[in-house]
Design brief:
Elements (H helix, E strand, L loop, with lengths): L2 E9 L2 E8 L7 E11 L1 H7 L16 E9 L11 E4 L2 E2 L5 H4 L10 E2 L11 E5 L3 E4 L5 H4 L2 H14 L7 E4 L3 H11 L6 E5 L2 H10 L4 E4 L5 H8 L5 E6 L13 H8 E9 L11 H5 L4 E4 L6 H11 L8 E5 L4 H10 L6 E5 L2
Parallel strand pairs: 10-11, 10-13, 11-12, 13-14, 14-15, 16-17
Antiparallel strand pairs: 1-2, 3-4, 3-8, 3-17, 4-5, 5-9, 6-7
Helix pairs in contact: 4-5, 4-10, 7-8
The protein binds zinc ion (2 copies).
One zinc ion (ZN) binds next to helix 2.
């Protein structure tokens, strides 16, 4: 059997860059030579053992990656060696009530490459043909590796039904919040506000999108400020990408803050995977006859994301703070743990 190098999570909290067996490529699969892979918030949970027993060790994570096809299986018809591809990591069952309605992100047994089965933090990975998206070679491969995380933003926009001229607030300027910002800016030229308590994250967003308004919730009351900015009306759509239940600036929890941010008949779209229940005052929602929708992973938005990358309407470099060699993966995870304000997307560079 051939071997390759991969970043193996040998125990929770400890990666080792080491030689492993390279699995055989099945008839319906291609062997992708990974070029770049991104470290996601879910990977941080996997690293710390917080997804156990969904994840087991030893394990090779990595669900945000792109590369070049090295080998194609005998039944692969749509792709050939040498093509650049991004990989949609979602594996749905096809049988549950959500899948029967073709609503795959809500699959009751949804699995992801790199979460439930070995992923892209290695030199090579076998991927079934139907999970591949072709990219024009003019798109740099380190941008191609961001298609997955950017597609999360486009999916959230679809779930919230962002329209031209909508006003938007995004609570949370982390990787997800900034991906939403990129997608939102392809849809509306109107007011976009970002809320966070980490000034560096807000500045990062602002340095690439100078027309947004940022609110540091550690300094100002975000809800009051949003009402001021919108002439007391509230925004059309609020996205919650904070991901915990703690009150922001000691004032209001993120979801309730989103509800208080919107106009009557507005929409709140929640993405943050907090582990704690959080209190809402339902009449704040009912008086507005507002809508709360949830958004998880993406669903076909890879194509829309790639089109936008090709058109140059996105700013992929705005998401990336660091590019590391994969043997430095342990350092990458420690940087994210210790200095969350200084690092957004860390890419591992394989090729
Ligand atoms: Zn991810
Ligand atoms: Zn299903």
């Amino acid at each position: 059997m051939k071997t390759m190098n991969a970043a193996v999570l040998e125990e929770y909290g400890r990666f080792k860059w080491k030689q492993v067996d390279q699995p055989e490529t099945a008839d319906n699969e291609v062997l992708v030579k990974v070029a770049y892979a991104g470290i996601c918030g879910s990977d941080q949970h996997i690293f710390k053992g917080e997804f156990h027993p969904r994840t087991t060790i030893p394990f090779i994570p990595g669900h945000e990656f792109a590369g070049i096809i090295a080998v194609t299986g005998s039944k692969v018809t749509g792709f050939r060696a040498g093509e650049h591809v991004a990989v949609d990591p979602i594996i749905w069952c096809g049988k549950c009530p959500a899948c029967l309605r073709k609503h795959y992100p809500a699959c009751s047994s949804l699995k992801l490459l790199g979460v439930d089965v070995n992923g892209g933090f290695g030199e090579f990975i076998n991927v079934p043909e139907h999970m591949l998206y072709r990219l024009d070679p003019s798109i740099p491969l380190h941008h191609a590796a961001l298609v997955e995380v950017l597609s999360i933003g486009f999916h959230a926009c679809k779930r919230a039904n962002v329209q031209k001229d909508d006003t938007v607030v995004i609570w949370g300027a982390g990787k997800v919040g900034q991906s939403i910002l990129q997608a939102v800016r392809t849809k509306t030229t109107h007011t976009v506000i970002m809320v966070d308590i980490l000034e560096k994250r807000l500045n990062l967003a602002k340095s690439h999108y100078s027309d947004i308004i940022t609110i540091n919730a550690g300094i100002e009351n975000p809800v009051e400020r949003i009402r001021e900015i919108t002439g007391a009306k509230g925004v059309d759509i609020a996205f919650e990408a904070v991901g915990h239940h703690t009150e922001i600036g000691g004032i209001v929890n993120p979801v309730r803050g989103c509800i208080q941010s919107i106009r009557g008949a507005g929409t709140v779209c929640v993405l943050g995977l907090g582990d704690e229940p959080l209190p809402l005052l339902m009449k704040e929602l009912i008086w507005r006859e507002a809508k709360i929708v949830a958004s998880r992973v993406s669903h076909g938005e890879f194509a829309e994301t790639i089109q936008n990358l090709e058109k140059g309407t996105l700013k992929p470099d705005a998401l990336v703070t660091d590019i590391l060699n994969p043997d430095k993966i342990q350092d990458g995870f420690m940087m994210l743990e210790k200095e969350p304000g200084n690092h957004l997307k860390i890419l591992l560079k394989f090729a």
